[in-house]
Amino acid sequence: MQHPAYRRRLVPVLALGVVAGLAPGLVAGSASAASGDRAAAADSAAPAAPTSARAAAGVDAERLAPYTRQKLTWKRCAADQPAKYQCATLKVPLDYDKPEGKRIDVAISRVKTSVPGKRRGVLTSNPGGPGGSGLDLSLMFAKGLPKNVREQYDMIGFDPRGVGASTPLECGLTEAEQTYPRPTRSAAEHAANTKWAKRVADKCRAKYGSSLTHISTRNTARDMDVMRAALGEKKLSYFGVSYGTALGAVYMQLFPQRADRFVLDSAVDPGRMWRGMFQVWAPEAERAYKRWTKWTAARNATYHLGDSPAKVARTFRKLVARADVDPIVVDGQKLDGAAVRDITRAEFFTVRSGAKTVADLKKAAEGRQVRELPGAQEQSLDNMTSSQLAVVCSDASWPRDPETYRRDAIRDGARYPLYGDFASSITPCAYWDRGAEPATKVDNKVKSLVVQNEWDSQTPLVTGKAMHRALKGSRMVTVAGGEGHGVVFGGSSNACAEKATMGYLVTGKLPAKDLTCKATSGGQRRAETANPAPAPFGLR
């Protein structure tokens, strides 16, 4: 049965929950990127992209003129925030095929940091999700990025359509309705999950109707371009994390001449959006689990989980089986076997954190007091869940037959015992109205930098490589042995990856070839002690 007491908050599909604390290695002026003044000047002398709007995006420029030429009114974002942190409301069409129709708001922010004579333009960003708010990233970047980056860019943040301070989506979902993914281990669970999926889709449709089909990555990318035009910029530079890499890639596909310096950190596979991105978690979790059992067995004196990989695996299987019969109680919450698997999946990618978590579960099963488990107390919001569903359901087609999900979940549960049934279970997308447009195929030669940890729980290395292949003008920086979701602003620091990333933002020069950086012991310790963002259905 579902574990109703366990409220694992839907942290966006691909969101990066640790962006709020910029990597310590990136305190202002600390990165070792080379000075790029001459390169920036040379780049700025290149012919500018035309400002007429976009054949590639399929929208007539003149019909969009009221949006692209709108005058923004900037005001202090909040009395308790610095005066330089300014906010404005951008008007965009709900449906770009009907720009004369309904308008919605996109909340944007700005912190001017560039220096006259060195200014290149604006740097905007997205922290992940979908459903993640990025409004305050302008202030965070202005505080945390190196001086030679800040000198070239004004920092721009925004809440994507449907999120936060932008015209928000809130379907009125109860806390129980927001809980997903859900395991499918039996016909009864599949029936219950099917009822839940239809109920959630019906609730959202009843409140928003066809508007839901326009809350998509493609339209958010168009909103970014309207923002660029309203800011008076010819081009846009961008730093996207997790789901933000999908948004950045779609922008590059629609507006290749407008994309300046794009960094994609912890990338999704644009060919798997979106069911495939969830399903890839199952086989990748098995790889991480196998590595974890070896690491943990070598440290049996510390964790007492077994002195061989087989014994460690047996200890974990017994915990799951025991929890199904007699739930493990942590902080008053009862965790069944599915909850144990859900909690530990992401933890296994960061081996020390995984060992601590399983050791604590074992203690709790024995009746001893333990620390709060990762993600067990996380709370999500109706807005985050609703907007996330709107995007992942609208971006691409999902199977409509509930039997497909039951069959896939049973099959994948047997193939990948840790997470297969979760990854393939039914979601509200099975009953969602199809998106207003087909999925966006990413296949271009725009210059960009893809940055990836080898052991990433949300966007595994295989998906980062797929993004790199799709973006034929990209270079890839891989942190071999790197753990955690997010490289530059994640839980672990890596001077090699940070130097390449900041160097690209400053000079516009990509590495001559794909680069492999080695995870450092100091950076790895930070990753192991960080509390990884929980990852429900989202990729956060």
Give the SSE layout:
Blueprint: H1 37-44, H2 61-68, E1 75-76, E2 86-93, E3 103-111, E4 121-126, H3 137-144, H4 147-150, E5 153-158, H5 187-208, H6 217-230, E6 236-241, H7 243-254, E7 259-265, H8 275-279, H9 281-297, H10 300-303, H11 309-325, E8 328-330, E9 333-335, H12 337-347, H13 351-365, H14 382-395, H15 402-415, H16 420-424, E10 448-455, H17 461-470, E11 474-483, H18 495-507, E12 515-518, H19 521-529
Parallel strand pairs: 4-5, 4-6, 6-7, 7-10, 10-11, 11-12
Antiparallel strand pairs: 1-2, 2-3, 3-5, 8-9
Helix pairs in contact: 6-7, 9-11, 9-13, 11-12, 11-13, 12-13
Condensed summary:
This protein is 39% helix and 13% strand.
